[in-house]
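Feature request, filed as a ticket because there's no other form

It would be nice if the structure record came with a short human-readable summary line next to the tokens. Right now we just get the raw output. Example of a typical job, pasted below so the devs can see what we mean:
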Amino acid sequence: MIVIPFSLKGNCQIDTLKTVSAQAKNQNITPIDSSKQRDIADEIYQFLGKTAKLEQAAHPKKINISVVPAIGYSLTTGFAADVTTNAAFYTSKTHDENLSEIVSSLAFDTKSQKFFTSKGEIWADHNNYKFVSDVRVEEYPIDTYGLGTNSTLDETNPLKYDYIRFYGTLYRKVLTNFYLGAGYNLDYHYNITQAGNLDNSISDYTKYGFSTHSTSSGINLDVLYDSRKNPINPLNGAYASLIYRQNMDFLGSTSAWHSWLLDLRKYYKLSPTSNNILAFWAMAQVSSAGTPYLDLPATGMDMYNNSGRGYAQGRFRGRDMLYLESEYRFGITSNGLLGGVLFVNGESLTGYPDNQFQKIAPAVGTGIRIKANKHSDSNICIDYGYGIDHSHGFFVNLGEVF
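Raw output as currently delivered:
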């Protein structure tokens, strides 16, 4: 795998001193001056024999941008070329709100997948408002394996489809770190074809109700608790989200269905003078009868497609899902340039037609972190995960996995 990262600095730079002091004040931690840290751009400057410019005070609305072009291989994509951009910024002069981010990706691969995604979490008005968006346009051949965690590789069913997603949710603070939100969700899958199971058995998609297209259009109501100050790389704090989604015929849905999603995350900073973190992530999702097959909970189908490292995206699928992951993040170099992680996760999804939870599918792995931008504290994450049935592969992300 080849990853070629760089960061845009100069006029796009966030004010380092304000960033450090704001995060330290909000998180009650010992400040780590980012001007004394190293990122990949610093290494490039040094390699080229150029002296890095002195840090300049930032102007309002200036942005810190990290860009990661990559050529590599993963279980889901095969060999792929990808460009991911992370834009981190504050929406006020004082920098007393949480760090906002927009992550965009453009990718092509040898499995004929082509996609553009843009996902944002924007804080405004001193954290009184938060806007979350998720926009995708994809041409997406993918292998599916049936429903439940008892599915086997013999049941591999290659699918092809085009996909458009638009999610937008606006949150309003009601108490410190507590928010209520409402929004609109659209999932539109079309030009769907299936090749059938490799073992010539009837696919679960056919049993469930195959269709060449599906539309899920509806509203979502959310309750959110978020005490993290930097979602790109949380040092401590917690995140808890409960989302109710109701899809409606009169809004264009193929069928009326609803779902509940509970997402819990907790971060423990193990030392006041280092960024060694113990992090936990749990999800539970339940969906009603009538949920389109491709909208069912599945491995790697969270907002940032990060759950289930160790398995291909969509490896397990079902009407209901339970997921748990723990990760230990630690520094390797004192200047913050390199770090590492150890992780373990497990998931269980319900089978069909009984909709009962089946066995737990575990995975373990390790990875390296390369500082893409020291001011936003964003890392290039290169992980290797291993699961059951000899499933294994590399997983690349810009920003921490959760």
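Something like this underneath would help us a lot:
The longest helix spans residues 16-27.
The CA atoms of residues 158 and 195 lie 5 Å apart.
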